[in-house]
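dumping this here before i forget
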Amino acid sequence: MTQRETPQHIGSIHQRESNRSTATPLAKYLNLIIYFFLVLFVLLLPYSIKGARRAWMAAFVTWLISLAVRRTRMFKQPLVLPMLAYVVFSGISTAMSYDPYLSWGHMKLVCYGPLVCTVFAQNLSRLSQVRTLVILLLLSATSAACFTAWQYAYGLGVRVKFISPQTQLYLAGIRTDDIIVGIDGHAIHTPTQLADVLRDRKSTR
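structure:
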């Protein structure tokens, strides 16, 4: 049994495809830029929240410029009202909390969710685009998990538990609880590597 599409849904799809087909070369170029930033967003998300936020903001600003260039309105989305209600009720809950000033800083995270969903929904018109972003997100998350597992297994550096003020490392600026990750271009993962590098430096002098 196949699911029948409602006339309203079909009309929305036809309107979106019509706007895509009649877009100016500049609007098509902006659409490519938006999709590039969305791809960058899903690739950076498992690695850097700050980088992913900047990629999304670039996509958001480019999308606003695209709306102005095409002189079109946003496409209708069935989840706009629920997402708006989520933001409104979260704001009311924050205002009525025990310490509103402490909770208000997290409201920007509440607003980011609906805005991110809106940018994706307004700029992805083909299932192949969604499939590509999902695959890239899964690959990026898998690589981030493997890299983290490798760091824990192989080591990320050597933590200094105690250092005497008379040592060369102390004079070089190393202090207690510092983590040494490299010396003179040599990566340091284990205490043995640190000892070998220091021994080689001493022998070359």
